């Protein structure tokens, strides 16, 4: 795993011509609506940089994130670990964990420009004040190849993290039976529509995951990574899940979960 972390860190900036504009206020590091997904690989990487234990990083800097599968399906989404905002590792305009930052941070904003239709990102409300999105940087062919390599690594890291913590990847959650709670806090928009407050959803999720014991179960699993053999243990996990992901069908969501009180039950989708 030492070799993997070293290669990963080198790829973050390999052949990249991007640097944050001087006038950028690091909105992406601060804005709560820009979700930064993290994996247990990311947490271990941050642990190596900061000297903090993985389970302590989880307790202090991580939240449970909910990412809707589609704008038209706000109550059906993926559960993941995410950085709390504003990012606690942002010091002024600099990242204090830059060599070991989450892979999602290393991919932004360049991976957005791999899309054939960059205008999709430019038109998104959240990106209107992002200078790095509005004025795309140049991406060489070598950098594109590197970004695709990082995306492939990230895909495997997400699978490992989800499978280790949640027992399934991806962890889809259907919140339709909790819609009344979610709809209590809505933000009216200028065009007459309303916006669901994601922080409200995250608060509901944390309360239920905490009260049901899931949060403490996840913490125990992360404490296992803080033992002396944590790195080799993580390496063995990765070898196993890298093999498993080959046989995973990601084309259709077949299994999701719902809350039954504070517990989770599995539901099968048509």
What is the beta-strand fraction?
Answer: 15-25%
Query: Helix/strand-derived class?
Result: alpha+beta
Distance between the termini: 40 Å
Rg to the nearest angstrom? 19 Å
- Whole-number total of structural domains: 1
Shape: globular
Largest sheet: 4 strands, antiparallel
Task: Give the low-confidence spans.
Answer: none
Write down the secondary-structure element order.
HHEHHEEEEHHHHEHEEHHHEE
Output mean pLDDT: 89
Question: Which percent bin holds the helix content?
Answer: 40-55%
> Number of helical segments?
12
Provide an overview of this structure.
This protein has 270 residues and is α+β, with helices and mostly antiparallel strands. The chain has one domain (2-268). It is 44% helix and 18% strand. The protein has twelve helices and ten strands. It has helices at 2-13, 27-30, 40-50, 54-61, 103-107, 119-123, 131-134, 141-166, 179-182, 198-212, 214-224, 230-244; strands spanning 37-38, 62-70, 73-83, 90-91, 94-95, 171-174, 186-188, 194-196, 255-260, 263-268. The strands form four sheets. Strands 1, 2, 3 and 6 form a four-stranded antiparallel β-sheet that branches. Strands 4-5 form a two-stranded antiparallel sheet. α4 runs antiparallel to α11 (214-224) and α8 (141-166) crosses α12 (230-244). The longest helix has 26 residues, at 141-166.
């Amino acid at each position: 795993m030492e070799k993997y972390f070293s290669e990963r860190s080198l790829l973050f900036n390999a052949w990249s011509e991007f640097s944050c504009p001087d006038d950028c206020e690091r909105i992406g590091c601060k804005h709560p609506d820009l979700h930064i997904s993290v994996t247990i690989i990311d947490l271990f990487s941050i642990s190596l940089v900061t000297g903090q234990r993985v389970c302590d990083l989880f307790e202090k800097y991580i939240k449970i994130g909910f990412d809707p599968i589609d704008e038209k399906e706000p109550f059906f989404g993926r559960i993941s670990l995410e950085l709390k905002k504003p990012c606690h590792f942002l010091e002024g305009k600099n990242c204090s964990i830059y060599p070991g930052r989450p892979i999602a941070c290393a991919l932004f904003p360049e991976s957005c420009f791999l899309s054939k239709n960059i205008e999709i990102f430019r038109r998104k409300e959240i990106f209107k004040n992002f200078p790095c999105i509005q004025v795309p940087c140049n991406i060489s062919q070598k950098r594109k190849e590197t970004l695709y390599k990082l995306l492939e690594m990230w895909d495997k890291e997400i699978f490992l993290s989800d499978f280790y913590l949640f027992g399934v990847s991806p962890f889809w959650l259907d919140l339709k039976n909790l819609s009344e709670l979610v709809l209590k806090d809505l933000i009216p928009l200028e065009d007459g529509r309303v916006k669901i407050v994601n922080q409200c959803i995250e608060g509901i999720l944390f309360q239920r995951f905490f009260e049901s014991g899931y949060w403490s179960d996840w913490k125990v699993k992360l404490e296992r990574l803080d033992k002396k053999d944590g790195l080799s243990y993580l390496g063995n996990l990765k070898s196993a899940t890298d093999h498993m992901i080959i046989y995973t069908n990601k084309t259709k969501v077949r299994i999701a979960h719902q809350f039954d009180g504070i517990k989770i039950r599995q539901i099968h989708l048509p």
